[in-house]
């Protein structure tokens, strides 16, 4: 019988097959229009009148998103992102009321899939940081030394903020929000009454005091994350190690004739033997750090530790919400006794001494490495000289040999008997 050859499907046939399989599938995905949705976690105390708006960021004046509630105040969004190496997504189910309505219609629960696993959490913030760039504009400008700073109204300061992509004019229509902003302005400004209107002028001591109070609550309330405290407080104040002494463990006590030499002579009975075995097992399970005494050059006092925590907390607040120019201006006001009398002199002295000790440790370590390298070089040079002397001695020995001796060395004596075998006793 003639053989038949199977032919491959054409492109049109494959397209028809794919379209038929897609039309016969149980679920179909609709095309996505616009930007993908994002997941926000909002506070429970925020009312239904709260809105997500755009305002200039107080540090770099770029547009940023905030949640503003007329009843509870301002909130900033903190982004929690998943690592790029582990892609994740969110599967969100609709609310109970929506589920009931959807079940009545289709008989199935509806949900939503968000391909981006980023999470935005709304946390409360002080709105005075949003107004600080406009308030401090006249204080940090170069011409402020020649100009006398004047009292201005709240609207004058609001107009100094960037208006591009800003919804500030809209939220100022809310009476409670406007009253909150003016109250926070009064907390860091000197005020005078001009008729029915209050005039404001930024005070350096009040602004520095307000930021310092927030830093104290952050430092004293154990709010600093453990990773930040370990990196910027503990390790920053740690002095170079001078010596490490390993403390003797109980299992390493010397025994002589069944007696433990520990001050009192005790017969080593069976029960004592089992107790000592259990004790040695427990001590061997402990970490090496617990049995090692570290001797450091200097150790920080409690006052120095508290001052370092306060400085780290203050720098953390300024690094997030205050521009570098205003941060420098606020730090100048910290030395004022009216602010709170914070004296960082003990911390500065300790840090200066610590810098000297670290420099000495680095220098001594480099000298030690140099001396060890020099010793290794000398040993290698001595080995090379010794090898060279051996080669020269061998050359001299070969040169002193006669021609007959050299020829005899070339003779194959593997099958010959030794000369001493002829003089043995028979």
From TrEMBL:
<feature type="compositionally biased region" description="Polar residues">
    <location>
        <begin position="251"/>
        <end position="273"/>
    </location>
</feature>
<feature type="domain" description="Rnh202 triple barrel">
    <location>
        <begin position="41"/>
        <end position="126"/>
    </location>
</feature>
<dbReference type="InterPro" id="IPR040456">
    <property type="entry name" value="RNase_H2_suB"/>
</dbReference>
<feature type="region of interest" description="Disordered">
    <location>
        <begin position="366"/>
        <end position="412"/>
    </location>
</feature>
<comment type="function">
    <text>Non catalytic subunit of RNase H2, an endonuclease that specifically degrades the RNA of RNA:DNA hybrids. Participates in DNA replication, possibly by mediating the removal of lagging-strand Okazaki fragment RNA primers during DNA replication. Mediates the excision of single ribonucleotides from DNA:RNA duplexes.</text>
</comment>
<dbReference type="GO" id="GO:0032299">
    <property type="term" value="C:ribonuclease H2 complex"/>
</dbReference>
<dbReference type="InterPro" id="IPR041195">
    <property type="entry name" value="Rnh202_N"/>
</dbReference>
<feature type="compositionally biased region" description="Basic and acidic residues">
    <location>
        <begin position="390"/>
        <end position="410"/>
    </location>
</feature>
<feature type="region of interest" description="Disordered">
    <location>
        <begin position="244"/>
        <end position="294"/>
    </location>
</feature>
<dbReference type="InterPro" id="IPR019024">
    <property type="entry name" value="RNase_H2_suB_wHTH"/>
</dbReference>
<dbReference type="Pfam" id="PF17745">
    <property type="entry name" value="Ydr279_N"/>
</dbReference>
<protein>
    <recommendedName>
        <fullName>Ribonuclease H2 subunit B</fullName>
    </recommendedName>
</protein>
<feature type="compositionally biased region" description="Low complexity">
    <location>
        <begin position="274"/>
        <end position="287"/>
    </location>
</feature>
<dbReference type="GO" id="GO:0006401">
    <property type="term" value="P:RNA catabolic process"/>
</dbReference>
<feature type="region of interest" description="Disordered">
    <location>
        <begin position="1"/>
        <end position="40"/>
    </location>
</feature>
<feature type="domain" description="Ribonuclease H2 subunit B wHTH">
    <location>
        <begin position="129"/>
        <end position="330"/>
    </location>
</feature>
<dbReference type="GO" id="GO:0005654">
    <property type="term" value="C:nucleoplasm"/>
</dbReference>
<dbReference type="Pfam" id="PF09468">
    <property type="entry name" value="RNase_H2-Ydr279"/>
</dbReference>
<feature type="compositionally biased region" description="Low complexity">
    <location>
        <begin position="11"/>
        <end position="31"/>
    </location>
</feature>
<keyword id="KW-0539">Nucleus</keyword>
């Amino acid at each position: 019988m003639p053989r038949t050859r199977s032919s491959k499907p054409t492109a049109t046939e494959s397209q028809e097959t794919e379209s038929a399989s897609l039309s016969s599938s149980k679920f179909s995905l609709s095309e996505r229009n616009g930007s993908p949705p994002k997941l926000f976690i909002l506070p429970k105390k925020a009312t239904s009148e709260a809105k997500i708006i755009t305002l200039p960021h107080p540090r770099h004046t770029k547009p940023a998103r905030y949640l503003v509630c007329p009843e509870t105040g301002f909130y900033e969004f903190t982004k929690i992102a998943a690592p790029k190496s582990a892609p994740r997504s969110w599967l969100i189910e609709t609310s109970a009321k929506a589920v009931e309505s959807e079940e009545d219609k289709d008989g199935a629960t509806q949900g939503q899939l968000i391909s981006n696993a980023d999470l935005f959490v709304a946390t409360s913030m002080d709105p005075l940081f949003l107004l600080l760039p406009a308030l401090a504009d006249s204080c940090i400008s170069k011409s402020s030394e020649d100009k006398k700073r004047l009292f201005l109204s709240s609207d004058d300061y609001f107009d100094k903020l960037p208006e591009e992509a800003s919804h500030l004019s809209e939220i100022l229509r809310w009476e409670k929000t406007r009253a909150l902003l003016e109250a926070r302005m009064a907390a860091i400004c000197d005020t005078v009454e001009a008729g029915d209107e209050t005039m404001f002028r930024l005070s350096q001591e009040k602004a520095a005091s307000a930021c310092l109070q927030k830093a104290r609550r952050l430092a004293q309330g154990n709010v600093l994350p453990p990773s930040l405290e370990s990196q910027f407080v503990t390790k920053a104040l740690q002095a170079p190690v001078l010596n490490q002494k390993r403390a003797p463990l109980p299992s390493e006590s010397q025994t002589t004739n069944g007696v433990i030499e520990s001050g009192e002579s005790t017969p080593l009975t069976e029960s004592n033997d089992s107790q000592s075995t259990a004790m040695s097992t427990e001590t061997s399970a402990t970490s090496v750090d617990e049995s090692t005494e570290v001797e450091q050059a200097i150790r920080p006092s409690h006052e120095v530790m508290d001052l370092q925590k306060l400085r780290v907390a203050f720098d953390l607040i300024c690094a997030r919400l205050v521009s570098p120019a205003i941060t420098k201006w606020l730090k100048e006001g910290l030395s004022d006794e009216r602010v709170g009398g914070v004296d960082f002199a003990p911390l500065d002295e300790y840090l200066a001494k610590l810098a000297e000790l670290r420099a000495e440790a680095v220098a001594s370590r480099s000298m030690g490495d140099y001396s060890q390298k020099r010793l290794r070089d000398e040993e290698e040079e001595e080995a090379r000289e010794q090898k060279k002397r051996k080669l020269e001695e061998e050359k001299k020995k070969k040169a002193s040999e006669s021609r007959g001796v050299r020829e005899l060395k070339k003779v194959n004596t593997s099958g010959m008997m030794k000369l001493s075998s002829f003089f043995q006793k028979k």
